[in-house]
Amino acid sequence: MRRAQANPATAAVVLLAGGLVVSLAGNLVAAPAQVGQSHLVVIVGAAGGDVYQEVFHNWAVQLIDAAAGPLGLTPEQITYLGEDPELDPQRISARSSRENVEATLTRLASESGPDDQIFIVLIGHGSGAGERSRFNIPGRDITALEYDAMLDLFVTQEIGFVNTASASGDFAAVLSGPNRVIVTATRDARQNNQTVFPRFFVEAFAQDVADLDKDERISLLEAYTYASREVKRFYEDDGRMLTETSQLEDNGDGKGSYEPLPAEADGALARRMFLDNPMNTFNAAAGPTTDDPELRALYVDQRGLREQIEGLKILKDSMDPELYATELEQLLVALARKGQEIRARGGGQ
To answer: How many whole angstroms separate alpha carbon 104 and alpha carbon 80?
Structure first.
């Protein structure tokens, strides 16, 4: 948060946070929303058997179909690297080898815009510890330290790196850094049993189950929260001891949180990352795309207002309660009016 110098004549102070401009004199000014594209890279590793290969592939397909369907990503924005491309030639772009992973992330770093959000989801088995933690792929594995070097290629883009594999916990500390959300299915390398976290993480985007704030979009934080909760329920219902403890790290301190709270530590960045494309679909719920440029612009404005509301919520504890309520009301009214404009042009809400 950056505090501007007050002008004695107007006694106004301006706070800037994530595109939100709030005047403490009572006037709200909306900064132009920087809306980038979302990109999804799904990497399915070496399964070690037909049963796991089918399970891992099905999870990948559910996530990819949700991204390509209701979330509005184009084929160019989705890459699926799998152990066996012949398993699904239409979806799998190439084998999930070290060379193809490196080539994919290098290409994406050069082609993506500065405000884009990159989601990298690993599904499979893992092993190792610390910087030597690995995600098992066909051929020579890629270590956590090597993935960290690949993520350094993305200078300004926001990264959501989700390792759903066993023994993935140490990735959080190794990959921690600015503009990065690191999610792991386990808290450390000692939790090395096969995980069920990917099943529920995928469900969060593929089914209408994870929208906690009812804004018709699924943030990375909401997907993590849903999956973490359902993993615990799964083990309880099965009468088994919990052998996987997921964590999320996004404030750059290298320490993951099991239940992140944006106002306290981790979660602020994950809260504003969404696996949807505002230029292709109006929200994360299933709905029609549009070729109307004016309607698209309204959808982008709508997303910008929602992001400003999220930014204001982060500032809540540091603001005067009456001022917070006033500014929130103004944003909600603006959001409602934008919804009316969308419906007037034949759009949905």
So the answer is: 10
Nearest to 210 by CA among 223, 200, 221, 197: 223
Average confidence (pLDDT) over 166-173: 97
Q: Say how far apart CA 196 and CA 228 lie, in whole Å.
A: 10
Domains with residue ranges and CATH for the chain: 1-33 (no CATH), 38-271 (3.40.50.1460)
Rounded mean pLDDT, 191-196: 96
Q: Please check whether residue 131 is in contact with residue 142, taking contact to mean a CB–CB distance below 8 angstroms.
A: no
**CA 323, CA 28: separation in Å to the nearest integer?**
11
Specify the pLDDT at position 89. 96
> What stretch of H or E contains 78?
strand 78-82
pLDDT of residue 299: 79
d(CA 96, CA 138): 7
The overall average pLDDT reported for the chain is: 85
Calpha distance 349→340 (Å, rounded): 9
pTM of the predicted structure, to 2 decimals? 0.76
User: Which of the four pLDDT bands, split at 50, 70 and 90, describes residue 264?
Assistant: low
CB 41 within 8 A of CB 118: yes
